């Protein structure tokens, strides 16, 4: 994605001169996997590029357009094609109006909602799904049928007989085969033109991380603290919005069914992260980041498999993909709405939760790893050998 800029901030903030400088201060240029700095005067480009060793650029913002250019570390200069602001909507600003798009007849009913440009935007997106189980398999199906251009499918597990009731499109012959194979087959059936990258690895594997950091959106459908840790790092270091989709069916103190809830949590770069919101348990994480063999050696006993049923997974996925769809097409009524949604089906309640942020968070603030890209803490891990 050379020539695209990702800005942290909200559309409302962009047009207030007082806040604009703060937005510009936090702005980060995304160039492939690298990041850079924005400077206010062109004569600063060369010096700052030399000091930082990163891409340096300038940007002119107006309410409906943005223009600028980048000086890359190799000395070449390239104009910016698009500025993306990940807020409640994925705001896209260009130097000139986007060319008129005409979507294929097969998308007619969707384009009536999204517009031809909205449909064309979906076709340009690269979206990752981390975890291809009961939740992730439905996310894949919906994204493929919506016309998302490219999916990155990440899961290191194989299909188990007990998965069959919840894995979309699964057959008995899929048992013991990688979940990535099943997801790829479903996606291609849904849209033969779709581009796929399958990574049958854990998300922290360097191969998986390399694919993840060049996506436009991430769906986290794996219920482990280590998956949350790595996706959280990617969201804030590489400025990629993510949605966590999950279902919990807890056991109550008397051994009965507890308060079932589904959660669709939005994680926007620079806004309260999974750490700030208490969603990553350091003890669980410490156990999970060890290779399986070491966990067995330490006689770590994994918990009893949690209950899981398809309709609850569908409820959570419907909410998550609807949010993504409306954000991609700029159809949310408010750019400031970054809340998560919790459903409690037993009491038929639905709550909105706004994200909390620790002002000194190491991951999601500009004094920490926010927007640091390849120079952030995750980068070193990318190159290190890891277990599959
Ligand atoms: Zn944080």
From TrEMBL:
<dbReference type="GO" id="GO:0008641">
    <property type="term" value="F:ubiquitin-like modifier activating enzyme activity"/>
</dbReference>
<dbReference type="InterPro" id="IPR045886">
    <property type="entry name" value="ThiF/MoeB/HesA"/>
</dbReference>
<protein>
    <submittedName>
        <fullName>ThiF family adenylyltransferase</fullName>
    </submittedName>
</protein>
<dbReference type="Pfam" id="PF00899">
    <property type="entry name" value="ThiF"/>
</dbReference>
<dbReference type="GO" id="GO:0005737">
    <property type="term" value="C:cytoplasm"/>
</dbReference>
<keyword id="KW-0548">Nucleotidyltransferase</keyword>
<dbReference type="GO" id="GO:0004792">
    <property type="term" value="F:thiosulfate-cyanide sulfurtransferase activity"/>
</dbReference>
<keyword id="KW-0808">Transferase</keyword>
<dbReference type="InterPro" id="IPR035985">
    <property type="entry name" value="Ubiquitin-activating_enz"/>
</dbReference>
<dbReference type="GO" id="GO:0016779">
    <property type="term" value="F:nucleotidyltransferase activity"/>
</dbReference>
<dbReference type="InterPro" id="IPR000594">
    <property type="entry name" value="ThiF_NAD_FAD-bd"/>
</dbReference>
<feature type="domain" description="THIF-type NAD/FAD binding fold">
    <location>
        <begin position="108"/>
        <end position="322"/>
    </location>
</feature>
